[in-house]
Amino acid sequence: MARGKLRIYLGAAPGVGKTYAMLSEAHRRVERGTDCVVALVESHGRPRTEVMLHGLEQVPRRQLEYRGAVFGEMDVEAVLRRAPAVALVDELAHTNIPGSRNAKRWQDVEELLAAGIDVVSTVNIQHLESLGDVVESITGVRQRETVPDEVVRRADDIELVDMSPQALRRRMAHGNIYQPDKVDAALSNYFRPGNLTALRELALLWVADRVDAYLNAYRSEHRVSTIWGSRERIVVGLTGGPEGRTLIRRATRLAEKGAGGEVMAVYIARSDGLTSASPKELAVQRTLVEDLGGTFHHVVGDDVPAALLDFARGVNATQIVLGSSRRKAWQYVFGPGVGATVARESGPDLDVHIVTHEEVAKGRGLPVARGGRLGRARIIWGWAVGLAGPAILAVLLNTVDLGLANDMLLFLAVTVAAALLGGLLPALASAAFGSLLLNYFYTPPLHRLTVADPKNIVAIAIFFGVGMAVASVVDLAARRTHQAARLRAESEILSFLAGNVLRGETGLEELLERVRETFAMESAALLERASDVAPWTCAGRAGFGPPLERPEDADVDVPVGDHMALALTGRVLPAADRRVLAAFAAQAAVVLDRRRLKEEADRARTLAEGNRIRTALLAAVSHDLRTPLAGIKAAVSSLRSDDVAWSEEDQAELLEGIEEGADRLDHLVGNLLDMSRLQTGTVTPLIREIDVDEVVPMALGGVPEDSVELDVPETLPMVAVDPGLLERSVANLVENAVKYSPHGRRVLVAASAIADRVEVRVVDRGPGVPDEAKDRIFEPFQRYGDAPRGAGVGLGLAVARGFAEAMGGTLTAEDTPGGGLTMVLSLRAAGARPEPLPAGESRTEPERQATW
To answer: Which EC number applies (predicted)?
Structure first.
């Protein structure tokens, strides 16, 4: 059973009209024919609320005795037995009387939702669990009845019932909220203007966050890449240096200047993991930004300015805060720096703030884990010191006599310096060369490579041994540092890979691109074959290298099972990299299997949809097509009968019935053929530029005169459409609207321009359609409500949406203010760029494609 939908009316304080709004919604739904009952509503003796209960079915409450008194609670079992479409449940945060089915009313609501019953409820902002401390600090009252925030956030619809503090206090003074004897105390305590203003701000900000989540979902769904400055969202670029704390605090102050501001700190790490900031400093900055109410993000990217701008645009940021560069003046010869590049590439939608700090021009000073053990420059300096140092020292010591012990200590210092700079080999060369110089110049007999005193032999041997030991220690430390840096890079890569596995976010091409970037290759491809003798085929690839016909042609290949391999071109990788590469290869195979399973599931779903449509088509043919045929046959048989003398009026009536039956047949068959073309993907629109006011009037020929009011300005921009498909779409929409409009109420067909789109609205004043049915009415063979079988097979709206999508437009349903339904047909204006479609889709195929 499908889970029911939850709609919540949220208010800032008691008395703003939440229950009244909920009951008004119930009356509207009942008028539309929805089975709606009052599970529990607390009127609190308010006359207007009690009046709104009239005409609504109420489920009797369950009476419970507690401490000598009898209380009425919602009877969950009775509501489940009644099984209405919609149940009204007031005061979501209420605590039930002991002995009830559940401890909290929101738990009762969860049961109703799980049973497939839609619930409309109410709650005040002070009852949200996360805001308990804030509300207590404002009002001085601790709320005992709370509801978890997640329960409210999961609601399908949240509507804010707002009222100014002054209006609410007037309602209170008039006795519309509390009894007269409680009004003065309430106005002077909880309902003070300051309290109500603060609670109102809390409610507005909380709902704004929810609206922001809806906005992000809409931007993602419609692939909107431009920045919409609906609220201040500030991105702080961190380098891991000590200036990051200053930037975070400055961004927080900027966010506080605008209501609802948000701070997001982001650190850009290289994809190879070989350059990194101080983990300790990043941890401190993460804690700081989270304490200040912001969020911390870790992003991988080799091009720091581009990655920072992509992140900012992806989160719809309005400002970027960066620190002044810590590079010294001579370092600018290597480029303009991140700040200048971001400011130049940010465009008109992003403001970039460059903030000064105490670390400006002091050098970056960040630890760098080099690709080699010590680096080429250090090795060269090590050899220079190891070979030239002893010679220079020997020349200097020939001018002064310091004694053999001091001479050996000085040569040992040079050997240690060579070891610290260049590692083992330069230090060994320095020790050997220094030993020869000590023997030749300072050990008797002088200027000969012999040693007369055995003690000096021991001294020279100790000198050589100490030099070797120091060089070995330095070389070992360098190797351990390199291994630690490499393991850290591997762990970051594997952690990223594991996160994608758990979330199922990475597609095959994205994963191969990640492999190519991580290992600095030209291309990466996943090859597979059906058997040991079958040819290899490419399941996916990334990069710009030549196509590969077999793994042996690649520079690096990693087998995955018996008939699959990951192949890379660009350079030969060391053996140490193959461990991480093997993990990527295994994940690529998993992603490929998951994609194929999804494709199989889609095909199965398509076949199931086709079976459903085939069954519906047979039902339509068996009844809706036979009905007009039967009427035509009966009328013709009557006219041909010789037993009855028909008057001219009777003959005209029978002929009129034949004509109406033929028209119905023509309309039904036309819709069936159109739906068949849509479902099989054979609709090929001939797009050309045309004025809307040339097409829309032609679509009104099939409806009665004076049933439609037309408002299509001649000043609208031209649209890029197929005129025939547009005319058929509008005709179906108008016919549907006229069918459900009350007698004497004309349907309005209006058009207007919005940005690079032109919208055609078909507005009726009929019973309307509930939110949960607005998508279903566009499915084939769907008729809303209790429409008679003779009303058609339910293809008109499906055909209209299919034609609209085939032309690159959209068709959606909205509520008409005051009651009714509005169909919104959005078309692309001439000259506007078409919106990009996902890979594999075509403009000539509707999204809901099925095969008959």
So the answer is: 2.7.13.3
Residue 154 pLDDT greater than 90, yes or no:
no
CB-count burial class (<10 Å; 0-12, 13-18, 19+) for 197: middle
Is residue 756 a contact partner of residue 829, using CB atoms and an 8 Å limit? Answer: yes
Sorted by sequence, the CB contacts under 8 Å of residue 713 that are 6+ apart come out as: 693, 751, 752
User: pLDDT tens for residues 793-851?
Assistant: 456 787 788 888 888 889 999 888 778 899 999 998 887 655 544 433 434 333 333 22
Asked whether the beta carbons of 758 and 712 are under 8 A apart, the reply is no
Is 529 in a helix, a strand, or coil? coil
Cβ(241)–Cβ(277) under 8 Å? yes
Closest CA to 319 of 266, 282, 356: 266
- Give every CB contact of residue 652 below 8 A, 6+ residues apart in sequence: none
SS3 728: helix
Alpha-carbon span 695 to 727, nearest angstrom: 6
Here the tokens at position 383 are 């050899």
| 343-362 residues labelled b (16+ CB within 10 A) or e (exposed) | beebeeebbbbebebebeee
Q: To which H or E segment does residue 89 belong?
A: strand 86-89
DSSP state of 147: B
Q: By CB neighbour count within 10 A (0-12 exposed, 13-18 middle, 19+ buried), where does 564 fall? A: buried
H helices, E strands: number in the chain:
24, 24
Query: Which residues contact residue 440 at a Cβ distance below 8 angstroms, ignoring those fewer than 6 apart?
Result: 446, 447, 448, 449
Query: pLDDT, tens digit, for every residue of 268-312?
Result: 876 544 445 666 778 888 888 888 888 888 776 767 888 888 888
Residue among 44, 41, 39, 40 nearest 14 (CA): 44
Expressed in angstroms, the distance from the first to the final Cα of the chain is 27
- Coil/strand/helix, residue 9: strand
Instruction: Give the β-pairing of 86-89 and 36-40.
Output: parallel
Omega cis (within 30) before 445: yes
Both tokens of 310, joined, read 């992509």
Name the residue with tokens 């690529």: 588
Cα angle at 700 between 697 and 701, to 5 degrees? 110
> Residue 95 has what DSSP assignment?
B
Q: What is the pLDDT of residues 610-644, one digit of tens each?
A: 666 556 555 555 555 666 777 888 888 888 877 77
β-strands 36-40, 57-58 pairing: parallel
3-state helix, strand, coil in the chain (%, to 5): 50, 15, 35
Asked whether 687 and 719 are in contact (CB, 8 A), the reply is: no
Whether the CB-CB separation of 736 and 778 falls below 8 Å is answered with: no
